[in-house]
């Protein structure tokens, strides 16, 4: 392995030529505090500040791929743009020209190039249009984004620089000092011509202090196997994986957890017992798959494409939850999308996801991948049969407040693996039979489920259970023979006995926040209702179902209190058993 490692200044690094940031790198992520730390390190030391190591790959005469150092290089470019613009404000055009040499250059053909080039177009636009363009031209750029983190960093640098210049007699001299401090900052610059060895160096260097994430390690391992020149498609896919994870609003979803769910959604012959591949074993498991293959590079590329598919599924599941079960979110991913093929599917998916548990995610990825992405597609009937059982089991489990155990995680992992490995329709049926039998053994009891419903509460300061409560009330309303509500226009949760002036800490008020005192009504009606039950009874009767007997009687009499609320809570929990029966019930 030929390694070129030298201590170099940032100025030397930038003037060396062009550095390429590949698509698989995460987007610029430095926050204002990181910028302030960088500024203090650069400007307060009497000697050049040491920025650590940078790792690149490529021959001397060609642009070099940045394996490690993207964030620092981007930050250096942003800081130099701030200094350039301040020079311009002070009429120092020669100095503007001088600093521009570190930002862009002309190649042998006389064409203008950026010193730092992002292969990801959106990242390139955020840096080039937001930062490198002179201020007077930025607002004219089509991709200008005033809220991008690159622009946030620019504004923070600008603010710090202007504070440093305040009161200075010689502003230009002070700017020179700041410029020179930035360009003098030092790195250990490591270049390895062989791309695979460059990843090895990066991993070794970063296996100290703050450890690399599992996703980082897996990325390095996969891209190290892909030949230089063939990585473009894989880089695009990896970039989209990270974007899908960034956009997800699932609580607890990050690159490592995504990798855990995605890998556990697939059958792996190296794990014949279909045991859970825990976080600590993910990299080893993926490495074993590569090692056991006939073509390491094609297997690595296929793993990246598979993860991209799973990231798209995760994105659609996330959108299903946030859209209250809209079928439209699957339109772009399914080549044969029709509303009737997804409406009831999404209703059940929402019923699973609204529980707030991530435990079913590997199985949901596997099922939806088989339904929308794979050639041997899962039938709609088989998918619905599976989702109905998952919904019953998971919602009861979550409401009963049973936590994550190895049993439930293994249950979902084994079913996901079975769906992934299926060779025939009968394999799917067997997977459902096995899942149902195993779920029955650990299912929440009816008493545990009802107790969980009785514990649910909602107030302005306790909103954690709101979506579960709204889902229960909605499903109960839909179970009646008819309804007065139009769910297409949205519904919200109303406290029948108002909250005004009532302390949540007082035991006698606890019933006010429970399900018995809650009802769903049209969203546009909620805010217009009077506070007192007797005053809003007439309006509520327009929306409350006649089969909600306790509440209907109270509305007729315009009286409401804890005894009636508790009776209604019991009725709600009893009816919930019919909607979410144990998994062995028909």
UniProtKB/TrEMBL annotation:
Stored InterPro entries: GmrSD_C, GmrSD_N
Residue intervals of the GmrSD restriction endonucleases N-terminal domain: 15-223
Residue ranges occupied by any GmrSD restriction endonucleases C-terminal domain in the UniProt entry: 449-568
Origin organism lineage: Bacteria, Bacillati, Actinomycetota, Actinomycetes, Mycobacteriales
Entry protein name: DUF262 domain-containing protein
């Amino acid at each position: 392995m030929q390694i070129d490692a030298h201590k170099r200044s940032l100025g030397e690094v930038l003037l060396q030529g062009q550095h390429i940031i590949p698509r698989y790198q995460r987007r610029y992520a430095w926050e204002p505090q990181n910028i302030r730390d960088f500024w203090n390190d650069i400007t307060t030391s009497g000697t050049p500040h040491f920025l650590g190591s940078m790792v690149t790959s490529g021959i001397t005469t060609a642009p070099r791929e940045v394996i490690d150092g993207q964030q620092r290089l981007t930050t250096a470019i942003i800081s130099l743009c701030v200094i350039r613009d301040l020079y311009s404000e002070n009429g120092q055009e020669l100095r503007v020209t001088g600093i521009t040499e570190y930002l862009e250059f002309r190649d042998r053909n006389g064409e203008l190039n950026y010193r730092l080039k992002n292969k990801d177009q959106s990242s390139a636009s955020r840096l080039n249009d937001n930062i490198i363009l002179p201020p007077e031209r930025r607002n004219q750029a089509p991709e200008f984004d005033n809220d991008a983190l690159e622009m946030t960093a620019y504004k923070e640098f600008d603010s710090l620089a202007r504070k440093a210049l305040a009161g200075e007699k010689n502003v230009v001299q002070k700017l020179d000092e700041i410029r020179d401090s930035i360009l003098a900052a030092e790195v250990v610059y490591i270049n390895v011509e062989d791309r695979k060895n460059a990843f090895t160096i990066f991993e070794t260097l970063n296996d100290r202090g703050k450890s690399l994430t599992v996703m980082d390690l897996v990325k390095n391992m996969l891209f190290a196997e892909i030949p230089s020149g063939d990585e473009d498609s894989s880089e695009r896919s990896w970039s989209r994986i990270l974007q899908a994870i960034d956009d997800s609003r699932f609580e607890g979803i990050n690159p490592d957890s995504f990798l855990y769910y995605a890998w556990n959604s697939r059958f792996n012959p190296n794990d014949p017992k279909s045991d859970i591949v825990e976080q600590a074993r993910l990299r080893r498991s993926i490495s074993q798959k590569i090692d056991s293959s006939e073509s390491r590079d094609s297997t690595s590329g296929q793993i990246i494409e598979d993860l991209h598919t799973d990231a798209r599924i995760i994105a659609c599941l996330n959108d299903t939850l946030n859209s209250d079960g809209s079928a439209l979110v699957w339109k772009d991913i399914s080549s044969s999308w029709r509303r009737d093929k997804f409406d009831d599917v999404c209703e059940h998916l929402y019923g699973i996801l609204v529980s707030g548990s991530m435990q079913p995610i590997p199985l949901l990825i596997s099922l939806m991948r088989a339904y929308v992405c794979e050639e041997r597609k899962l039938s709609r009937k088989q998918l619905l049969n599976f989702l109905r059982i998952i919904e019953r089991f998971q919602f009861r489990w979550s409401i009963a407040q049973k936590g994550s155990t190895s049993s439930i995680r293994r249950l979902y992992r084994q079913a996901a693996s079975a769906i992934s490995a299926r060779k025939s329709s009968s394999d799917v049926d067997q997977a459902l039979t096995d899942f149902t039998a195993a779920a029955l053994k650990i299912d929440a009891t009816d008493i545990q489920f009802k107790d969980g419903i009785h514990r649910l509460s909602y107030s302005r300061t306790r909103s954690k259970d709101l979506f579960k409560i709204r889902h229960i009330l909605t499903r109960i309303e839909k179970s009646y023979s008819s309804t007065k509500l139009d769910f297409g226009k949205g519904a919200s949760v109303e406290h029948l006995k108002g909250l005004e002036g009532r302390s949540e800490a007082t035991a006698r008020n606890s019933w006010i926040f429970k399900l018995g005192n809650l009802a769903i009504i049209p969203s546009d009606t909620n805010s217009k209702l009077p506070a007192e039950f007797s005053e809003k009874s007439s309006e509520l009767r327009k929306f409350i179902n006649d089969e909600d007997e306790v509440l209907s009687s109270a509305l007729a009499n315009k009286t409401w209190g804890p005894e009636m609320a508790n009776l209604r809570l019991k009725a709600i929990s009893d009816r919930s058993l019919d909607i979410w029966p144990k998994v062995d019930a028909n």
